[in-house]
Amino acid sequence: MKFGQQLRESLFPDWKFYYVDYSGLKRFLYERTDKGYTADDESEFVKLLDSELEKVNNFQQTKSSEMKRRIEYCEKQVDLITQNPAPEDAKREQLDIIEREIDAVIGEVYELAKFTRLNFTAFMKIVKKHDKNAPFVLKPMFAEQLNSRPFFKENFDELLLELSRLYNIVRNGGVDVDGSKDPQSGNGQNFVRQTTKYWVHPDNVMELKLYILKYLPVLIYRTKGATKPPNPAITSIYFDNDKLDLYQGRLEKSEGAEAIRLRWYGDMDSTEIFVERKTHHEDRTGEKSVKERFSIKEKYVNDYLSGEYTLDSKIERLREEGKKSEQDLHDMETLSREVLESVKTKHLEPVVRSFYNRTAFQIPGDARVRISLDTELTMVREDSFDGKPRAGNNWRRTDIGVDYPFSQLPEQDVCRFPYAILEVKLQTQSGVEPPQWVLDLIDSHLVEAVPKFSKFIHGTSVLLEDRVDVLPFWFSQMDRDIRKPATKGIGISRANSPRGSFVGMDNAGRHRGGRTNSATPSQSSLQYQNDIEVIVESEPGEHSSQNEGTVTQYSHAYGGEPSEETALLGRRNYQNSSESWLQKINPFAKPDSQRERQPGRVTFTTRDDQPNKRIAVPVRVEPK
After folding, report:
1. CB count in 10 Å sphere of residue 430
2. What pLDDT score does 109 carry?
3. If you average pLDDT over residues 272-280, what whole number do you get?
4. Could you tell me which residues come within 8 angstroms of residue 256 by beta carbon, excluding any fewer than 6 positions away?
5. DSSP character for 423?
6. Which of the 8 DSSP states describes residue 390?
7. pLDDT above 70 for 585
8. What is the three-class DSSP state of 24?
């Protein structure tokens, strides 16, 4: 579809006069170039373009201010309602009206985000078209004009946080009952969890956030004394050797395969670094896959990796303070020693960095449904395999921070992933289905299932492609557009204020492509319990500074052989209307009757365009 047609079909009718006149500008260019484009034509075109930019920027700023005022109005009304001594039924009725107003605001925030994205794309395309057809170069000058009126840099996350808090208060009868809760309280020691990852096209990111917001609040990790939300950035440094043994082991699911990374949250001035290790174990061994970690001060990291620093003093301090059990302290000491031993014996060094901004959704104290969305995902080379000392003698390179999109780096050192990563974690008892809205979400046009996606594996395979001969299976999905026709009943539409609702759920359970599912997933899904991952963890929270000591996750999973379509493309291929919810969450899952146990974790195929590369295709799936 040509962009002009896409713009006409995507614009919000009530605002149609405030979009850039893309067709008019394009018509001006073609008419004048046909006659011989002159300096006077260029001057006139620049004036037209500047006028369009001013129009779009003013409208966007006006609507953004309006959204903020409407949110402030809702907050004041909620305060008045909660302070009113009226009967609870009357208060609930008034709160319902406020909730409908919030729905209307969310609908307009979505439209405003789409308005911003469409107009920015329109300006970029018309300038590119100009430079291609006219004898003048406009792009550098127009970039300065854009920066002086940066409507495209509007950060809607601030509005998102306010709407999330407001929704949460209204849902709880006007009381911010979750304000004092530990975000991770309620994470039991033993529970059943299913975790699956999805890709989200940039066009769908804001719609997805606002959709989830209706059901789950944004989860914010605050430290004592903090007055603003923490930086959502998460950065990890993955270690490997020049033979990429860890990459190979993780991709092929070899017994005992390790992944070792150093992670921090927020800015570069973060002083707490988490040393993490994941160890894969085959089911046949009776062992369980493990994730462990401990924290260390940034100033000690280099000395730790060289063997000159140990955790002895820290462990002794924790023992004196009584903050950790003897078992936890023993696990911390053992893990630190074993990670250092792996670094030395396997000759590990920094290889790939991953960076992303995370938005987490969860009801504080309730871990039954936790959703995270990672945007601006970028992988960066940290290795020195080609003779370039990117990190030097340091444990991470120092020429970049968390300054996405890392434009100072050479293109061969950076991989900017084209999609956001959605991770859905469901914690339910066996036989209990997840909420219907979650099932509708994962079966919608907003997401593309990629169950075993790994940032480490993808970054390594792209940035160090000349050193790998096995590629991950999702490379097949990178060759096609993951956008799909909108699923009926899922998504966001503008509601009239204060009536209406911005989210419509199709209770018939529609699948993509217009197919309907007349039956809801059966309660008898216990027969699929072998596909569920059982995790034991004691992690108080990834962002929490309380994470002293070892955090361990145990997983035990079984799986069946996927169809060729499912294995290579991750597409859902439902054979009947009574499949279990686990099959929806994990496209690789199959009923026991259809399973064929395989001795290995992966099989291999090849690509026509890369005959010297193999692709690792999962045969038995272990959700993370």
Report:
1. 11
2. 87
3. 92
4. 249, 279, 280, 281
5. E
6. S
7. no
8. helix
Task: Give the residue with greater pLDDT, 83 vs 467.
Answer: 467
Instruction: Identify the helix (H) or strand (E) that includes residue 335.
Output: helix 326-345
Which among 341, 291, 336, 284 is positioned nearest to 313, based on CA atoms? Answer: 336
Strand pairing class (610-618; 470-472): parallel
* Strand partners for 303: none
Q: Which residues is 361 bridged to in the sheet?
A: 218, 371
Residues noted as catalytic: 455
CA-based nearest residue to 534, from 232, 188, 198: 188
Model pLDDT for residues 393-405, shown as the tens digit of each residue = 999 999 999 989 9
- With a CB cutoff of 8 Å and minimum separation 6, the contacts of 397 are 350, 353, 380, 382, 390, 391
Average pLDDT over residues 280-304: 80
Please list, residue by residue across 396-409, b when 16 or more beta carbons sit within 10 angstroms of its beta carbon and e when fewer do.
Answer: bbeebebebebeeb
Grouping H, G, I as helix, E, B as strand and the rest as coil, residue 160 is helix
Helix axes 88-133, 22-35, angle to 10 degrees: 10
185-194 pLDDT tens trace: 444 433 456 7
Q: What is the pTM of this model?
A: 0.70
DSSP letter (8 states) at residue 510: B
What whole-number distance in Å separates Cα of residue 474 and Cα of residue 563?
A: 15
C-beta of residue 177 within 8 angstroms of C-beta of residue 363: no
Answer whether residue 149 shows pLDDT above 90.
no
Cβ atoms of 356 and 378 within 8 Å: the answer is yes
Predicted confidence at residue 430, as pLDDT, reads 63
What does the DSSP assignment read for 27-67? HHHHHHHHH---HHHHHHHHHHHHHHHHHHHHHHHHHHHHH
Residue 624: closest CA among 421, 425, 448: 425
Model confidence over 80-135: pLDDT tens digits? 888 888 888 888 888 888 888 888 888 888 889 889 989 999 999 999 999 999 99
Question: Which run of H or E residues covers position 405?
Answer: none
Collapsed DSSP state (helix, strand, coil) of residue 2: coil
**Separation CA 190–CA 188 (nearest Å):** 5
